[in-house]
Write a structure and sequence with these properties.
2 helices; disordered N terminus; Lipocalin; 2 domains
Length: 183
C-alpha cells in the first residue's frame, strides 16, 4: 500500500442522514462549556495573547537607599505591645535594568533587633519591578528562608511604602518603610 493518496484501493464513505449530523454536532451548552474551559486554560497557562505589556519605568532607582522600616499595626496578634513601632535601619542597593530590579538588602538595629534576634540582617532582591513610579520587590532572607514584599512609590530622592514578611506560609511581620537616596 502506498501513502499520500496513491494507493489503488478506493475508500467508501457512508453518507450521513440529517438526523446523524444533528446528533454528531455538539449541543450549544456543551460548546459553551468547551469554549469556557479552553479560555480558562489559556488564562492559566499565561498565553502571551492575553498579557498586557509591562509599563515603562518613569524613574531609575539604581543606587544606594537608606532609611527605616517601622513595624505596624500596633497590637497585631503576632506581636506584643512591646514591639509596637519597632524600628529597624534598612539599606537597599538596587540595580535597575529597564523595569526590572535586582540588588541587596540589609537590616540593622534601630530601636529593635531585626527579625529572629538580628539573624535576618541581610538578603537579596529576588525579583523587582518598577512600573511608572510604583515599585515592587521580593526580598529573600536566606538565614531563615523567609521573604518580604516591599511596595512603594518612588521619587528621585525618596521611596515610601508598605512591606509584608512571610515565613512558613504565614505573615510574620508587616509595616511601613521609607528610604532616601544616598547615591
Amino acid at each position: 500500500m502506498q501513502l499520500l493518496g496513491h494507493n489503488r484501493m478506493s475508500l467508501k464513505v457512508p453518507s450521513a442522514s440529517a438526523a446523524d449530523l444533528r446528533r454528531s454536532q455538539p449541543r450549544p451548552q456543551l460548546a459553551l462549556l468547551l469554549f469556557l474551559m479552553e479560555f480558562a486554560a489559556m488564562g492559566l497557562c499565561g498565553c502571551a495573547a492575553f498579557k498586557a505589556p509591562p509599563s515603562k519605568a518613569a524613574i531609575d532607582v539604581s543606587g544606594v537607599w537608606r532609611g527605616e522600616s517601622l513595624l505596624t499595626p500596633c497590637g497585631w496578634a503576632a506581636h506584643s505591645e512591646s514591639v509596637c513601632n519597632a524600628m529597624n535601619l534598612i539599606t537597599f542597593t538596587l540595580i535597575q535594568s529597564g523595569s526590572q530590579l535586582s540588588g541587596r538588602y540589609a537590616c540593622a538595629y534601630g530601636n529593635y533587633l531585626c527579625r529572629h534576634d538580628g539573624m535576618d540582617s541581610a538578603g537579596y532582591v529576588a525579583s523587582g519591578l518598577v512600573s511608572g513610579r510604583r515599585l515592587t520587590m521580593r526580598v529573600m532572607i536566606p538565614a531563615d528562608v523567609s521573604s518580604c514584599m516591599f511596595y512603594g512609590d518612588a521619587g528621585e530622592r525618596r521611596i515610601v511604602g508598605r512591606y509584608i514578611c512571610y515565613e512558613g506560609g504565614g505573615i510574620t511581620e508587616e509595616g511601613d518603610w521609607r528610604v532616601a537616596r544616598v547615591y
